[in-house]
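Bit of a strange request maybe. I'm writing a small parser for structure token strings and I need a real example to test against, not something I typed by hand. Could someone generate the tokens for this chain?
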Amino acid sequence: MRFRILLSALAVCAAAVPAGAQTIEATRFAAPAAAQAGGGSRPGLRVYGLYDYVSLAARDSFDAIFDSSNISGLGVGVEGIDLWRGFFARFAYTRMTKTGGTRAFVINGQVIPTGVGLEVEMSPIEFGGGWRQSLDGIDRYVVYGGVSGLRMAYKEISEFAQSGDEVDETFNGLAVFAGLDAMVARSVFLGAEVQYRRVPDAIGFDGVSQAFGEDDLGGVVFRVLFGIRR
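Reply from user aminoacidic:
Good idea to test on real output. This should exercise your parser:
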């Protein structure tokens, strides 16, 4: 009799163990799903350095002066991320310099260099925001897009400049952007981004840019980012 009772107790325990294990497994996997459905990650921060390579909209004007319509530079940025349903806010600063140019004028479509050296500095400040979306549910790979306002500081520095030859002004513009970032180590990310910028009515009032009818200091930007995401 005692032996039968012992066998019955062992059978009940054996049946209960898989059920209990199944309950534990279900709880373990259900928790992340519930967390994702509940609204996503907590607010965080991205701090990064950046490299910009810009194909300028005023192509003919810069080709005439520098034999190239591209400019590049380095900068820094900071973003508050996951502020509300994937929304983020951005502030970034970049400084770009283009040297080796020469002032010129245009006659009947022909560019005539003057031999007077010219250097250009462009320093855009971005302030804007957008939305981020995880590709894998754990934010290792994230795509994002948004819109930024721009304050573009533009300076022309020329050899033997006379009064009124040098330019040092700031213009307003707009940028739309999209990108991807990936975690490459704990808290460290690498990203790539494309922007389209418009900075209208900045040039085109005289000189080469007026001859070519170009007034926009914007263009297409290819950006690489490297920084910390917390």
